[in-house]
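Moderator note: this is an archived Q&A kept for reference. The question asked for a predicted structure of one protein chain; the sequence and the answer are reproduced below.
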Amino acid sequence: MIIYSAMPLELMFQNQETASYDYEEIQMNGVTMLVQPSGVNEAKIIRLISPNPYDYMNPSYAPGQKIYFRPSLSSDS
């Protein structure tokens, strides 16, 4: 991204460091994605992290979509 502005970058991005996001990286149906939890077992997709181009063509994985998932229980024994 290129920004053309007379405003100093320090003013444009002054709140960038203080911004706090509660994103989580999850894997659902073999697709890794960055989500923002919005409730119990519910999240909003922020972005996909996948080498498969067909995952990006799937409208159910589009950024902004709500997903519902069941957390998996892992046993570390």
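Archived answer notes: The mean pLDDT is 84.
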